[in-house]
Structures are given as structure tokens and as C-alpha cells.
Amino acid sequence: MGGTPTIQYVIHIESYVSSSSSEAQQAASVDAIAVLLKNDLLSLETLVREMEMYLTTTDNNIRSRGILLLGELLMRLMSKPLDDTAISSLIEFFTERLADWKALHGALVGCLALLRRKTGTGMINRSQAKAVAESYLKTLQVQSLGQQDRKLCLQILECLLDRYRDALFALGDDLVYGICEAIDGEKDPQCLMLIFHIVELLAQLFPEASGPLENFAGDLFEILECYFPIHLTHPKSDDVDMKRGELSSALMLAFASTPLYEPSVIPLLLDKLSSSLPSAKVESLKYLSYCTLKYGGDRMEKYTKSLWSALKDALFTCPQSTLSEDSDPIDGLGFHESEIMTQALELLQVLVRQHNDSFLSLILGDGDISTFLNSFSQFDDFNSLSTQYKQRLHAVGHVLSVCIKASGSSCNKVFESFFPRLVDALRLSVENSHGIVHSALDANFNFGALYLCVELLAACRQLVVSSDEVASAHDLARDSWCQILCSFCTSLCNVFFCLIQASCVESSWNAYVYAAVKGLEILATFPGSFISVSKLMYENILLTLTSIIESDFNKKFLWKAALKALVEISLFVNKYHEDEKAASFNSIVKQKIVSLISSDDLNMPQSLKLEAIFDIGLTGKSFMHSVVSELEKTISANLSEILVHGDRRLAGLTPGLLECYSNKVLPWFHGNGGADEVSLSFAINIFTKMENNSSLSLEAKGKELLGATMAAMKQAMTGCSVESQEKVLQKAIDLMETSSFFLSNDLILGTDLFNKKTQLGQTSEGLSCRDEWIASLFASVVIALRPQTHIPNIRLLLQLLAMTLLEGHIPSAHALGSLVNKLPLNISEDCSLEELIDTLFKNVMWRNISIGKEGNDGGAVAMSNPRLNSLNSHAVIGLAWIGKGLLMRGHEKLKDVTITFLSCLVSNEDQGNFLPFNDQMKDPTEHKVLCLRKSAADAFHILMSDSDACLNRNYHAIVRPLYKQRFFNIMMPMFLSAIVKCVSSTSRCFLYQAFAHLVSETPLVAVVGDAKKVLPVLMDCFLILSKDISHKEIIYSVLIVLSGILTDKNGQEAIIENAPMVIRRLIELTSYPYVMVIRETAIQCLGAMSELAHARIYPMRTQVLQAITKALDDPKRVVRLEAVKCRLAWASIASRSIHF
Amino acid sequence: MVSELINANPVVYEKKERRDRGGRAVLDEYAAEPIDQLEIFDILLNGDIKDPEHPYSLEELKVITEDAVDVDDQRSYVRVTFTPTVEHCSMATVIGLCLRVKLMRSLPSRYKVDIRVAPGSHATEAAVNKQLNDKERVAAALENPNLVDMVDECLAPSYA
């Protein structure tokens, strides 16, 4: 056993050392040896002995490879325990080898591997580490090495500093000097990352001021400073930004690592702050914030003045926050914060917190700010303010806010020194009592003061909210700023009220309105333990805002702002559980707003009412519940009003309510829970309403109302759980039993009253209004049922639906489709799905056809003309929806449906004469038959297209993957053979229509797969269908399929094969008179065809150019433009000469 | 080829914002949209006819403007007046030829195209006009492979 591994590893060693083997081979060799070592098949000692020759030879190449092999092996053996002797001899070897610059790489790898070993697996000790460091400092010239080696060197240094501090500490000055030398002039980003970290670690090694670092702090910093601000000159990869960010924060850590750098860092940053480069400014501000925190207040004290002036510069004069162009109405001055501004404010906050009084006095005593504040009176009217002034105002507002937010005491100071001035400017007084109209209310109300006032209030509020503990809040309450604020609170409120009252529709007032509403919102949302607003005032605020919502809807900006404020207040009340305020809010706002729905006030647009209600409702579940109950109440009240008295006005309004209910409110409950109960109560409610009235007549508005009610009902049902659905379904069935068609004995006794009626030639007049409502609501319930819901008495149900369907009620067809889609295969012991479907077919399709004996099969029936004649045209549509339900779940009964349709399409094969499809036919029966066959063709559209009304995932339909592709693959051969066999041109026309529906709804991939077979048929579709204007939609959708085929590689092959025919058809379509987009798309397709193999298309060139020349004179501009492009493409395919 | 540029340093103007036709919503399927000034202008500039000397388009050099296009759809007549960048521009005929070719390729054949140099903008105005509107001479010019190459070069779509 011993011999085999020996030979193996020797071979591997040789392969690794040899310069002729490839990199992959070398890597494999290292891995192989590492495995041997790991599994103890080979001892490290044996290996080293064996390698002796490679490690000591005088051939530089072989020696360096040998050492590298050893280093690489150690890297792979990090977790394998090694004994102390092995470690010590290895580290001794590598330490010594650091001096061997010709074979350095391996030595570096080996050192790093040994240094990185963890405790427990054999680490090197302190003296060994020291020896490594000494050798390193003595022999390595880091900056003269290549990038790889430099990186390794720096990694070794980093590792030493990180893990062997004790050993390094003794080295003192030598170490720092060595590091300075090693890092000077580095430019590679990866190495720089390491360097910044090394500097940071170094500062941790010598934390005290009078250490070796002190002597070199200046030198070290000189090396570092040139990297600020980080800027990559050779950005290579996409993640440059990320890398830059990492480097920048690493450098920041290095800068802030020791206070010793402070004398150099801060002046540098201040200097860079005054640069004109925005990124440098941002970086400086960021570094300053961090360093200020790290260096501490004492050291920073001396800089406060210069910092403040630099900050002022950045905030007031530098590239400012830009005026936002998008006119978002809800904004005060309309500024976007710039990055500089944000960083500057952060620094300001750090400074104010750190130096508290001294820095604050700088700000408060600042000449510029006070001059600015004193100049208020000169600038009164908002509209006359310059952008510059606004920017300054914005900046001052932010500075003061930051000061206030810093602490309670700073807040006091700011209030004491500024608030009186603001008050003066606003002409407020403590005595100004309630009710007196403010004298200052005219067009030139002082905007600056108002703005600052609101900013200060907002900052105070944040201060209070951020100091969570109750105790500190109480402390704050005793502060002087609070006293001041309380004393002015009432008059402030009054000013805001007056402003709102005086506001008008013009947008020039928006800034005032914004400030006023914002002010009120802030006053109303001061936390309760800290009362600066009395209950009376609070309620006043709510009343004002609510009355805006109720009456000022034509002042759009004000209205929106007020609504937003109310939403904020509501959120606040919910969040802080302020019982008293919540009570007031409920009694004033909630009830008023909620009652808006039911109010008869017709002045206010319904959409605004609903918006207000919904937004307020969003703030909490309880609110939404009251909104929903009110909405429900109103809807049901309206409905009974409409259903009983036929109130037209309400019939116009109620659809809006229903829409809001189904599109906004219910989805909210879906997302936030509680949808089940809400939906259930709504659905039951509606059905109860229907039960309670026995006669119903609605006119024009009825359709819209019914549509909205159905949509709401469906939406409600989708959200219901299985149990609730069962309850609603029962209710619906109960209601159904009160309908007139149920009561007619037709259904119960099974007599063919209906058949007789139709056979006697009576045209059915459809359902009565009430029956239609009942049937529609019932259908809506059925459409949205979950597959798991148990359905009682399914036979009766199907029969009912089949009956209403035959009366021309389309939702019933949807419901039937949904039912066959979702019913379980074995419904009960005596009833299977298949059997049910058979009965259903019988009911729908051949109910009125004497089928004879074979009728019991329930399968497909071949149609002949006389039979078709007696078929109800609604039945075809119903059958299509049933087929769709089957198709989507992949049921085999679908076959019967499709065969029926196909036989419908080709039914008059024996006649073979062409009947023009128009109304002037003499024989009405013939006409009816044609209509039926037309609907059979259209049935394929229903089968294939996605429907919003039913049978989609929203309504819990069962959808088999790829069902469209499957259906296409089954149907295509059937169509192809039918088309071939077909001799009558009428039948052919219908077949093409049906096929066009099929193809245009199939995913393109499937069509392209069969492009060669499909293409000729599509071309015939164009030829035959383009004769009749009524087929324009079909033609367009087929054209879209063709253009899809043109973009696919396989499709292009098929097109090349049929190129002459395709081009001929497209040329015909370029002059299709009825639809512009068809002409446009046809020309685009022709243009695309010019890219195909020239040999095939060249013969058609003249034809195409002639046709396109005609299209240049098309009445529509878009077509002409396409024609120009297409003409150019075709003219240039053969030669560069111009072809006229 | 030209050894020395005729106008070495032309003034380049900014492209004017295009008039918007207001969406693509077609209200009436059968309503005719006659060819108008803007459409001709679009045809002339869509392919970005380039100046024979410079990589700028004719619009950027203000050689043609929207106002310089006269069109009468009913009488099938269009007249384009262009302004060479310098008075003695020998490229004027080439530019004019390019414009003519572009219009011939893009307009229905019923149109009569008239290309003119703006009055007073060129030293040999009359000669240029005559040359550009003489059917025979245009046809002859387009037989010349060098000229055709040049025209095609100008009309080649720019992918800038």
C-alpha cells in the first residue's frame, strides 16, 4: 500500500513543478496531493523530505514552483491539525524564504497560509510571528512587486495586525515606518482596500497619543490624503459604483481611526468642502460627520467656527436643491433635497448634538440668519418671492429644524430667540382671542414667517415623538419652548383657519394653503401627554378640515391637502392610542365623512366622496369596517329604492358606489384580512333585497346598474371562503325558486313548453326584468364558486341555467362553462360529471331537435340543414362556453363539442352553391341557418380567447397548462382535412373563419412549429375573407399572426417556401380599403420580407414596388410613411441604383 | 473628390422641437389625411439627409426649414426651397439632387417636384435652379455612378 501513493504524489509533484504542464493540470496535481495529505495517506514530513531537491535547488524557476506548491498545499490544509514541530519548521523556512525575491510568491502564500491558521489546529506563536514581521520589514520592497504579490504582502500585514498584535507591538517605530513604506503610492483598488484597513488596524494597535504612531501620523496621513475623494480613473466593471462606495467608507474608517489624524484631516476636509465638485462636497460632509463623532467634542471645539461657515456655505450658496419641475401639488416650496443638503444637515445635527450650546450660539448669533429673519417684512407676497429667496428660506427652515430636533434645550434656545420675531411678522398676539378675524389677512400675508413657523412646529413635533419615554416627554412639557408654543397656539390656529377661509381656487395660494393645512395637521398630532393643543382646539381643527372635505371640493389643492392631513391625523390617532382624541376623531371626522356616501348632497362629485372615504378608511381596519358597512347600507338602500320605485337618479349614482366597492374596498379586505365576512354579508344582503320585491322594472339605466351589481357580486364571491360560498349559493337558489321561469311548470314537469313555443314560431321575448336580475345574480355567484364548494341539487341547477341560456341570457352560459370547469369528476355516487354533461348537451343543444333513439348517447350530432334550422342560436353560444370550461380543464367531452361545431360549419355540403351572406336572402330559414353557422365559427373565438367575465384564475377556474397549444395541435389536422374535403364555398368561408380564430388566439410558438402547414391556409383566409367587410377583425388578427411568423427563424423558412403567394396576398392587403392598420401592417410585413433570401424574393420585386408606389398615395399618413420605408428596402435589395 | 472643404466651419443649429400631431388615435377610419408641409419636411429629414461635406444633417445646418416647403396636395405640387450654407457652395446642386431623389422616392408619382435655391442665397442661383429642375439633366446625373453613389451616401440612414 505504501508504495502506490508515493509514486502517485511524486508524479504530481513533478507535474506541478514542470513548466510544460498546463494550468489545469497543475491545479489538479495540487488537489490530488492535498487529498492524500488530508486523508493521512501521506505525511507532511515525507512530502517535504521528498521535495527537498525542489525547495533548495539553485534553478530559480523550479525552486519557486516547489515553494509555491508547498504554500498552496498549506492553503488547502488550513483546517488539518498540524503539530508544533511541523509548524515551527515550516514557518522558519518561509520566513527565511521571504528574502529570496526570485521565489517570493510561494513564500508569501506559505506565510499567509500559516498565519491564518486557527487555534486548535496548530498556530504559530508570538515569537514566530515577530520573526515573520521582522523578516518582512527587513527584506520586502512591497511597492516594487507585481499586483498579485503586493496584494499577498498586504494581506500578510493585515493578518499580522489583526491577529498577532502582541508580537507586533514590540516592533514600535520600525513597524510603522515599514508600513508607511509598504503602502506608499499604491493605486490598485483591491490593494487600497487592504491598505485602508491596515491603517485602521495600526491605529488600534497604538491607541495612546504618545506612541510610535505619533511620530509618523503626519507621514501616514500624507500617504492617505491623496486618495480623497475616492475617484476611480479606470472604471472597468459594472460594479464600479459599489467598489467606490466600499473604498470610500474604508478610507473614512482609516481617517477616523485615531484622533492623531485630526490636525490634518479636518483642514483637508474643510478645504475639499469648498471645492466646486459636488461629489467632493458630499464626500467631505460625510467624512466630517463621521470624524466629528470619532474625534470627540474636545478636539473638534476649535473647528466649530470654520465648520459653521463652511456649512453655511454649503447650505446657502452652493449648488442648491433644485426646484422640482414635476408639479406635485402637495408640497410647500417645491424643492427636492440635494445630496449635499442632506449630508450637510446630517453634519449639522452631529455638531449641534456634540457641542450643544456653543454651536447653537454660533447659529443663533449668526449675522446672516438674523438679517434674513429681519428682512421678512420686505418680502410679503409669496408670488413676488425670488427663487433665491425661497431657497434661502428653505435652508434656514432646515437649519432651525435640525437645531430643534437635537435636544429640548436647543429647542428652547431656538424658540426663545426666533419665535418672537416670527410672531411679530405674523402679527400674532397672545390675547388674540377666538373669533376675531385676523387683521393681517390680505394678499401679502407674510409667507416667510408662516413657512418658518410651520417648519419649527414640525420639528418640535418630531422632537417630542422621537423622545419616546413618557418621563422625558413630561420634562419637555415643562420646557420654555413649550410654554411659548402653548401661549401662541390658539392664535396660530386662528391664523391657519383664516388662511384657509381666505383661500381661493387660484394656484398662487397653494403655498399658503399647504402651510396652513400642514400647521393644523401638526398641531392636531402632538402626542397627548404633551398637551399644547386643547381639546376644543383639536376639535376645531378637525371640524375645519372636515368641512373642507364636505364643501370645498372645487378648490382642488386645498381639498387634497385637507384629505391628506386628515389621513395623517387618523394614522396618528391609531398609532398612539389616544383615547380622547380618537373619540373626537370618530365623532367628528369619521361619522361625517362616512355619512358623505349616503348624503343626498348632489353638489359634491361622487368620485371625490368615494376618494375621501376610501383614503380615510385606509388608515385603519375599524375605519374601513365602518366605511364598508355604510357603503353597503347605502347600496342596499339605493337598490331597494331603485327596485321598488324605479328611482332614476339613484340608478345613475349607484353603479359608481358598486364600482368603488368591488374595485377598491373589497381588494383592500383581500389584502388585509376580513374579506370573508364582508363579502358574505354583502352578497346575502343583495339577495335579501331581491327576495323582498316581487316586481321590477328598470329602463335605460338598468343595464349599467345590473352590470355593476354583477361585478360586485363576483368580486365578493371570489373573496368568500368555501363555507360562505355555500351559504350564498343556497340563498341564490332560494331566490331562483321565486322566479317566474322556475314557477312555470315547464321545468318541474319536464314538459316541452319552451320547445312548443319556439316550434310554433313564436319568438321568445327574453326574460322579464326581475327574472333577468335573478338569473344574472345567480350566474355571478356560480361563476366565482371555488372548485371545493359543494353544490346542492346540481341537476336542477344545470337545467335552470340551460333554460335561461336558451332565453338568450349570456351570463348563464358563463355560469354553465364555469360549472363544467369546476365540478369534481364524481359529484356523488349516482352522478358523474360525464353523465351530467350529457344531460346538459341534451338540454342545450338538442332539446328542441327530435333526435330519436341515438339521442340518448348525448354525444356529438352531425348537423344537416333542417336540423340546424331548429337549433336555438343562443344554444351555440352556450355550447361554446361549456366547451371552453371543458377545454380549460382538459376534459375529453370537449371532443363532442368541437365535432358538433365542425359539422355545423360544413353542414350544407350537399348543396355546394355559394350563398352570399347578406340580409337580402329570400328564405328566412336559410338566413337563420347561416347565422347559426356564423356563430359556430365564432364559437372558436370564445373557446380560445381569455375572458374577463369568467373562467379565469381570478374566479378559481381550473386551468390546465398549455391547453391552448394542445387544442391547436388536435384541431389543426381536423381543420386541414375538412378544408380539403369541403366543396361548398360557403362552408369553406366558415371553416376559414373558425380556423382564423383558432390560429390567432394560439400562442405563437405553437403556430410557428407548424408554420409550413398553417401558412397556405392563412393565405387562403386572406383571399376569401378579405371580400367581406365584416371579417376585418379576423383579417387583422391573422395578419398579426403572419407578422409573428415572419419574426421567427422557422417561420421565415416556411414563408420563403411560399414567398410568391404570401407576397401576392400582402400586396392585395396593402390596398384593403376598410381598415388602416391592416394596410399598415401588411406593408410592414412586406418590408420585413425584403430581408429574406434574395434569390427567392427577387422575382417579386417589380410587383412589390408597383404596389408600394400605389400605397405612397394612401389617404392615411401612417401608411404612406410605412410605404416609404418599405419601398426603400425593396428598391435597394438588388442594386444601389435607384429604381423609379 | 473635393480636396478642400468649401465651408470648413459651418454654423450648426439645434434641431427644432417637432410639431406634435397629437397621438395616433384615428377617429375616422375613412377620413383622408392629405400630404402636408410637415409630412414633406418629415420625409426630407426622417432619413436625415446629411450634408455632403459634414456629418451634420441638413436640418442642423438650417439648409431646409419647415417653412421652406410649399405643398398643394390637390394640385399634386410641391416646392422645396433650400438655403446653402455659403453663397458659393458648389455642393448646392448635390444637395438639391438629394432632395429631389428623396422626394421622388417618397411621394406618389402624380407629384411634380420643384427644387429651388432660396433667392439671394447662392452666387449662381439661376443656373442651379435650372439644373435642378431640368428633367433631362437630372436623369443624366442619375446615370452617373459617382453622383449616384454620392446621393445614396447622403440619403443613407444615419445610426447616430
Q: How would you describe this protein?
A:
The complex is a heterodimer of chains A (1140) and B (160). With 1140 residues, chain A is an all-alpha fold. Chain A has a two-stranded antiparallel sheet with strand order 1-2. Chain B has a single domain, classed as GMP Synthetase, Chain A, domain 3, CATH 3.30.300. Chain B contains five helices and three strands; from the N terminus they run H-E-E-H-E-H-H-H. Chain B is α+β, with helices and mostly antiparallel strands and 160 residues long. In chain B, helix 2 packs parallel to helix 3 and helix 2 crosses helix 5. At the A-B interface, helix 56 of A face helix 1, helix 2 and helix 5 of B. Chain B: InterPro entries: FSCA_dom_sf (IPR034904), MIP18 (IPR039796), MIP18-like (IPR002744). Chain B: Belongs to the MIP18 family.
Q: What amount of the residues of chain B lies in strands?
A: 5-15%
The CATH architecture designation of the domain at 3-261 in chain A is: Alpha Horseshoe
- Rg value of chain B: 16 Å
How many distinct beta strands of chain A? 2
The CATH first-level class of chain B comes to Alpha Beta
The CATH architecture designation of chain B is 2-Layer Sandwich
CATH fold descriptor of chain B: GMP Synthetase, Chain A, domain 3
Sequence of secondary-structure elements of chain B: HEEHEHHH
Structural class of chain A: mainly alpha
Shape label of chain A = extended
Range of helix content of chain A: over 70%
Our count of helices of chain B gives: 5
Q: Care to count the β-strands of chain B?
A: 3
Give the termini separation of chain B. 24 Å
CATH class type of the domain at 3-261 in chain A: Mainly Alpha
Biggest sheet overview of chain B: 3 strands, mixed
Q: Report on the biggest sheet of chain A.
A: 2 strands, antiparallel
